């Protein structure tokens, strides 16, 4: 080939790659964690068949490791992972391994630097794939792999949860009430797939189960019109061309808690309000919780807020059933009995129940009071847009 022809071809290829990748980093260095036990136990097969060939075609640098037990991803990222060697940690699993990875990074001495520098992604190989639905727009492993290859670095709010003497990070959701119980109390019905959640919800709905609690909130936006306007303003912005956050120093750990822990006195500006007929307390940091459940259509990756839904458990059964149907139809947000607010912190104290269910990112935690506080842009993920979730919003 003539030298001039080669120059022309190289320039054409470079132009093509620019169009294909845009602002996304090419040839990402990816630490892959495969959970062979999650979901139906097919993660390794899905990775080998649907994901690995796409990473290879994109000339990504890959290092693969299998998790061996619950909590193993925490150990791997906290103790063994050199964050300077990788751009991405890819979790071939459900949402549980991503939860472990965030908390493993949080245990590092340079936690703030680690959480900012390395992007955490989920490749849908488990039973709960909300992270991929929100950021990749799909629960297909191959399409999610392609989305990761071309994904844009996106700052993500993370939430400190304090309970007892423990502090953990949440990236997805916290639930007390019918959502938590419908999920966690139906683990023995996993063979039903996503239908187990509907079954659990309807069973408790018919019984008009209540989950009394005292709740204190740090409210940021308290009306639906204002929430709609805030979402519209963000969604109208052009996609960012780069992640503008500075990388924290090697000595920067987790940020201090503005409001203390659940064991501290309640902040002076907070008031505990009794919710004696509470039916559902559900706080979300992402929009989708499952493919047909866009619970939080106003949620944004970087607004410093959790979207909180509260529903009274004493509403008529037919209204509650209509609420369940409205989630799939996309009309849930506008229902008058759905209390939807944006908050930056809260404390919830369950009462009049000896036992119950609390879900943090889909994982069961002890049934006792806990406090949550949002840290704006503490984490990093990859997304298709760079600043929005792949869900229909409230514009």
From TrEMBL:
Protein name stated in the entry: Sphingoid long chain base kinase-like protein
Q: What are the residue boundaries of the DAGKc domain, all occurrences included?
A: 25-165
Q: Which SUPFAM superfamilies match?
A: NAD kinase/diacylglycerol kinase-like
- Classify the source by domain of life: Eukaryota
Q: What keywords does the record list, in alphabetical order?
A: Kinase, Transferase
Q: Name one GO cellular component term.
A: membrane
In terms of InterPro entries, this protein maps to: ATP-NAD_kinase_N, Diacylglycerol_kinase_cat_dom, Lipid_Phosphate_FormReg, NAD/diacylglycerol_kinase_sf
Could you provide one GO biological process annotation from this protein's UniProt record? sphingosine biosynthetic process
Which residue intervals make up region (Disordered)? 231-250
Record carries keyword Transcription: no
Q: Name one Pfam family in it.
A: DAGK_cat
PANTHER family on file: ACYLGLYCEROL KINASE, MITOCHONDRIAL (PTHR12358:SF31), SPHINGOSINE KINASE (PTHR12358)
Question: What GO molecular functions are on record for this protein?
Answer: lipid kinase activity; phosphotransferase activity, alcohol group as acceptor
């Amino acid at each position: 080939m003539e030298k001039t022809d080669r120059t022309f071809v190289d320039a054409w290829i470079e132009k093509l790659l620019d169009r294909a990748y845009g602002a996304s980093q090419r040839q990402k260095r990816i630490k892959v964690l495969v959970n062979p036990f999650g979901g139906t136990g097919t993660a390794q097969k899905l990775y080998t068949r649907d994901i690995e060939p796409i990473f290879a075609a994109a000339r990504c640098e890959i290092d693969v490791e299998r998790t061996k037990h619950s909590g193993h991803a925490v150990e791997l990222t906290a103790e063994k992972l050199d964050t300077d060697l990788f751009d991405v940690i890819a979790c071939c699993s459900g949402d549980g391994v991503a939860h472990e990875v965030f908390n493993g990074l949080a245990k590092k001495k340079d936690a703030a630097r680690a959480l900012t520098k390395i992007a955490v992604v989920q490749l849908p190989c488990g039973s709960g794939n909300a992270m991929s639905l929100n950021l990749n727009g799909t629960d297909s492993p191959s399409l999610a792999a392609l989305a990761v290859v071309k994904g844009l670095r996106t700052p993500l709010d993370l939430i400190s949860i304090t309970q007892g003497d423990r502090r953990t990070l949440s990236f997805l959701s916290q639930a007390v009430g019918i959502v938590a119980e419908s999920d966690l109390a139906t683990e023995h019905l996993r063979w039903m797939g996503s239908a187990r959640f509907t079954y659990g919800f309807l069973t408790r709905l018919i019984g008009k189960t209540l989950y009394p609690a005292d709740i204190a909130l740090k409210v940021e936006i308290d009306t639906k019109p204002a929430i709609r306007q805030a979402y519209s303003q963000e969604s109208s912005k052009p996609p960012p061309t780069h992640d503008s956050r500075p990388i924290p120093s090697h000595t920067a750990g987790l940020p201090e808690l503005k409001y203390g822990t659940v064991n501290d006195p309640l902040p002076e500006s907070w008031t505990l309000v009794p919710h004696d007929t509470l039916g559902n307390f559900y706080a979300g940091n992402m929009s989708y919780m499952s493919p047909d459940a866009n619970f939080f259509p106003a949620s944004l990756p970087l607004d410093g807020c959790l979207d909180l839904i509260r529903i009274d458990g004493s509403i008529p059964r037919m209204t509650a059933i209509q609420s369940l149907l409205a989630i799939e139809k996309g009309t849930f947000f506008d229902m008058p009995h759905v209390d939807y607010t944006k908050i930056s912190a809260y404390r919830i104290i369950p009462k009049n129940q000896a036992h119950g269910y609390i879900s943090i990112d889909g994982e069961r935690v002890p049934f006792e009071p806990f406090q949550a506080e949002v840290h704006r842009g503490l984490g990093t993920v990859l997304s298709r847009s760079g600043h929005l979730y792949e869900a229909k919003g409230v514009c």
